[in-house]
Amino acid sequence: MANIYDVDTYEPRESIGYLMTRVKVEILAALDRALAADPYLSSLGVTAAQFVVVVRLVGCESNKSASDLCKELSYDAGAMTRMIDRLQSKGLVRRVRCVKDRRLIYLELTEAGRSAYPKMIELSVRVLNRFLRGFSRSEAQQLKEFLSRMLVNAG
After folding, report:
1. Are 54 and 109 in contact (CB under 8 A)?
2. What is the pLDDT of residues 104-129, one digit of tens each?
C-alpha cells in the first residue's frame, strides 16, 4: 500500500493526527463545561480528566493500579498521583492494599463514585452526540472502525 503522507506535501495542521488532537481537546473542554454546569457534579468538582479516570475504574474485571492508569492514559506518575489524590479527597475513589502483596495498591470507586458515574455518562453522551451532529449512525460506526484500526496499527 502507498503511504498516505509525503514529506514534500505534508501540512501538519491538515494532518489526521492534528485533527484528532484538536477534536480530543474540544471534546474534553465541552465535557468540562457540561460537568461544571451540572449542579450535582459541579458540587463534587469533577473535571473531564477525572471523568476519564473514573471511567477506567468502572466495572474493572481486574484490579487497577495507578501504574496501570498511567500506561492506559499516557500520564506521568506524578500527575496520576495528584489526580487520584483529588478524586480521593472528593470521596469518589479509594486506594486499597492488595491482600496477597501489601506493596500493591489498587484503586476502586467508592459508593459516591459509583453513584456519580451514571450522571457523568449522561453528560458524556450528550457532548459526544453534539460532536457527531450531522453524522449518520453508519458514518459514526465507520469513524469508530477507522480509529480502532489506527489503534491496531499502533501496536
Report:
1. yes
2. 899 999 999 999 999 999 999 999 99
Per the DSSP assignment, residues forming a β-bridge with 108 are: 94
Domain layout of the chain by residue ranges: 15-124
Give me the long-range contacts of 127-132 (CB less than 8 A, separation at least 24): 127/27, 127/30, 127/31, 127/34, 128/27, 130/30, 131/23, 131/26, 131/27, 131/30
Rounded Cα distance, 26 and 88, in Å: 27
Q: Using an 8 Å Cβ cutoff, are 120 and 41 in contact?
A: yes
Q: For the domain made up of 15-124, give the CATH fold.
A: Arc Repressor Mutant, subunit A (1.10.10)
Q: Per residue of the chain (155 residues), what is the pLDDT tens digit?
A: 889 999 999 999 999 999 999 999 999 999 999 999 999 999 999 999 999 999 999 976 567 889 999 998 989 999 999 999 999 999 999 999 988 888 889 999 999 999 999 999 999 999 999 999 999 999 999 999 999 999 999 98
- Report yes or no: 30 and 38 within 8 Å, Cβ to Cβ: no
